[in-house]
Amino acid sequence: QAQLVESGGGLVQPGGSLRLSCAVSGTIVEIYTMGWCRQAPGKQCELVAHITSRGSTNYNDSVKGRFTISRDNAKNTVYLQMNSLKPDDTAAYYCNAHRNDGSRTYDYWGQGTQVTVSS
């Protein structure tokens, strides 16, 4: 079965940077749309960014110009580079892999990694 393992979260000061990684095993990352959502306490998981199997990207307006999603097919890994971090970026970040084959849909989730931006 496909598994997603996240890493790279931590504590950072406002204006700092972090790079989150989502390592995929059991399948090939380039056939999925890969995305990140983030969840603050008591709130729904908010879309941050996603990248399609063709390389098209989409970002939440709140992170445009600061975050970049990318994939490394050789490492079977998706990254979220986060720059100019703000306290409002504080959340648990979850990686998702999405794919459909006609009538069947596949969704896999990482375990989450905490990002805390604090002064």
Describe the structure.
It is a single chain. The protein is mainly β. The chain is 0% helix and 55% strand. The protein has strands spanning 3-7, 10-12, 18-25, 33-39, 46-51, 57-59, 67-72, 77-82, 91-101, 104-109, 113-117. Strands 2, 4, 5, 6, 9, 10 and 11 form a seven-stranded mixed beta sheet that branches. A four-stranded antiparallel beta sheet has the order 1-3-8-7, with no helix packed on it. Strand 7 (67-72) and strand 8 (77-82) form a beta hairpin.
DSSP strand count: 11
Tally of alpha and pi helices: 0
Low-confidence blocks of residues: none
Instruction: Using the CA coordinates, give the radius of gyration.
Output: 14 Å
Report the structural category. mainly beta
Portion of residues within helices: under 10%
Task: Let me know the largest β-sheet.
Answer: 7 strands, mixed
Integer average pLDDT = 96
Topology, element by element:
Elements: E1 3-7, E2 10-12, E3 18-25, E4 33-39, E5 46-51, E6 57-59, E7 67-72, E8 77-82, E9 91-101, E10 104-109, E11 113-117
Parallel strand pairs: 2-11
Antiparallel strand pairs: 1-3, 3-8, 4-5, 4-9, 5-6, 7-8, 9-10, 9-11
